[in-house]
From TrEMBL:
Residues 448-469 are annotated as: Disordered. It comes from the Eukaryota. Residues 249-524 form the Neurotransmitter-gated ion-channel transmembrane domain. This is Ligand-Gated ion Channel. Residues 39-239 form the Neurotransmitter-gated ion-channel ligand-binding domain. The keyword Cell membrane applies. It holds the Pfam family Neur_chan_LBD. The lineage of its organism: Eukaryota, Metazoa, Ecdysozoa, Nematoda, Chromadorea. It is a multi-pass membrane protein. The chain crosses the membrane at residues 248-265, 274-295, 307-328, 508-527. It comes from Caenorhabditis elegans. InterPro entries: GABAA/Glycine_rcpt, Neur_chan_lig-bd, Neur_chan_lig-bd_sf, Neur_channel, Neuro-gated_channel_TM_sf, Neuro_actylchol_rec, Neurotrans-gated_channel_TM, Neurotransmitter_ion_chnl_CS.
Length: 537
């Protein structure tokens, strides 16, 4: 009996020793050693079977889209899960690890963001991560990251474009045969529903796989090539047109409409129409420079470039229309001025009747010797002009050239009379040149005054006095009719050019708005309906 109690006591001491031994803190360094050894390679029991890693992400915020740099900023949570049998424990629930020193002792998947230009790990106020270890060694790890992600934008339909931006995640060192990273089965990519972007709307997000074929282990003479796990989180974005509609489309459209005001301005008001046309052209050019600000210099035409080019075309056509109108009006004013000046000459030429009557009366009294009358008429420079419909005679100084006016024609006829009424019957009186200026001058021809005085012969050789009178009457009447016809023709040409200009103005008042309306219908239908491809969710 005594021996029995001795054996029982020895067994109790042994149990106490084993309990103290197993619960002693001296065993803690062995755990650290185990962790340090476990992070050298993936926790796989069989090297031929890759370690499976599940991945998911949650987009907390998006912003700072820079079209010129083709990048945006994103704040996201990354979730990963894998099984590490070396971390198995006998607790009934997950073990939380939020100590950064312990986290560094645990093996973690070496994932990185392939298209991130900058990436940072959030550490305010403490490192933002958590790590849960299940009893069977399954690890659930999450962390918070801030990325500047590159996104290749297709701006052909800007600002009515849809963009696909991806966040690519790859394993850096382990090929897919060693560490195989895949998405979670349910909702691997999610985003915060309260995200509000000023320029874009998030249509939806999706998960996909990308090509992870790369060359690695590069040396001077050799390299290896294999597939790495490559995952892509896709963001489908649709640009909001509100900003560009207010800042670009409406102002440029109004500038085009303002250019149409010149069609209602009097076609003779050249300064007003020139100012309006060039002001709209300069304003549109300045606004166009602002449209391209902040956009990359791509090699293709964007939708807003086509709109701006069309607006510039309409304004330029309005300027060309003004140039056409101005050309017609200049011709109209030219012929109108010529008609008025010739009309003045014709009105001045009515004095010929009085002159001829005086010549006839002198010839009747003096028997044809009317030289004194002619000398009295041509004694000095005299100017005949019309002022308020009345004839006005003015003295002019000597020294001017001999005018080719109606009075010159009459003077020429007097020379014929002076040569014994020897008229050339082939002379075309209706086609003689006439001045279009307002004032008509005549003077005495003094070149041959010493040798040949202007005299009428008392003995006509051919037709006599009666023939001369009839010839002068006929010539004067025919010349007056031709002058009136030319004046009327010039007035008609001037009116025709003015009517052509007015007709063009009236046509453009309706043609330009109709063409601009058709352009708008086609433009918005093409970019909002025809090229708008629905996004498959």
């Amino acid at each position: 009996m005594k021996k029995y109690w001795s054996t029982l006591h020895l067994f109790q001491v042994l149990c106490i020793f084993i309990f103290i031994r197993t619960s002693s803190p001296l065993t803690q360094p062995n755990i650290y050693n185990l962790l340090q050894q476990s992070n050298t390679r993936p926790p796989t029991a069989n090297a031929s079977v890759p370690l499976g890693v599940k991945l998911g992400m949650y987009l907390e915020s998006l912003g700072n889209f820079r079209s010129s740099e083709m990048s945006f900023d994103v704040d996201l949570y990354v979730y990963m899960s894998w099984q590490d049998p070396r971390l198995a424990h006998n607790f009934s629930d997950y073990v939380l690890i939020n100590n950064d020193e312990i986290r560094k002792q645990i093996w973690l998947p070496d994932l990185y963001f392939a298209n991130a230009r900058q990436a940072s790990f959030q550490e305010v106020t403490v490192p933002n991560f958590n790590l849960f270890v299940a009893p069977d060694g399954t690890v659930a790890y999450s962390c918070r990251c801030t990325l500047t992600v590159a996104c290749s934008l297709n701006l052909r339909y800007y600002p009515m474009d849809q963009q696909l931006c991806s966040i690519r995640v790859l394993s850096y060192a382990y090929i897919a045969k060693q560490v195989n990273v895949t998405w979670f089965d349910k909702n691997p990519v999610r985003f915060n529903e309260e995200i509000g972007l000023p320029e874009f709307q998030i249509e939806h997000v999706s998960n996909a796989y990308c090509n992870g074929s790369y060359q690695y282990a590069l040396t001077e003479n050799s390299y290896k090539s294999d597939d790495f796990s490559c995952l892509s989180g896709n963001l489908f974005l649709s640009r909001s047109i509100g900003y560009n509609l207010v800042q670009s489309y409406i102002p440029t459209g109004l500038i085009v409409m303002i250019s149409w005001v010149s069609f209602w301005i009097d076609r003779r008001a050249v300064p007003a129409r020139v100012t309006l046309s060039f002001t709209t052209l300069v304003s549109l050019t300045t606004l166009g420079n602002g449209l391209r600000f902040g956009l990359p210099q791509v090699s293709y035409a964007k939708a807003i470039d086509l709109w701006y080019g069309a607006c510039m075309f309409f304004v330029f056509c309005a300027l060309l229309e003004f140039a056409t109108i101005n050309s017609y009006m200049r011709k109209s004013e030219k012929f109108d001025s010529m008609a008025k000046k010739m009309q003045s000459v014709v009105l001045t030429g009515r004095t010929r009747d009085y002159l001829v009557r005086g010549i006839k009366e002198s010839m009747r009294i003096a028997g044809g010797a009317a030289g004194n009358v002619v000398d009295a008429l041509n004694d000095d420079w005299c100017t005949y002009s019309t002022e308020n419909g009345r004839l006005k005679t003015e003295k002019s100084p000597r020294g001017y050239g001999k005018p080719d006016t109606v009075q010159d024609i009459l003077s020429e006829r007097i020379k014929f009379i002076d040569n014994e009424f020897d008229f050339d019957t082939k002379e075309d009186d209706g086609n003689m040149a006439m001045s279009i200026y307002d004032n008509v001058s005549c003077r005495k021809d003094e070149a041959d005054s010493s040798s040949e005085e202007t005299k009428f012969s008392t003995k006509p050789k051919r037709n006599g006095t009666n023939g001369t009178r009839k010839y002068i009457d006929k010539s004067l009447n025919q010349s007056g009719q031709n002058d009136s016809l030319i004046v009327a023709t010039y007035f008609q040409i001037s009116a025709n050019h003015s009517r052509h200009a007015l007709k063009i103005d009236k046509s453009c008042r309706y043609l330009f708005p109709a063409a601009f309306l058709l352009w708008n219908v086609f433009y918005w239908w093409y970019y909002l309906v025809y090229t708008k491809t629905p996004i498959d969710k």
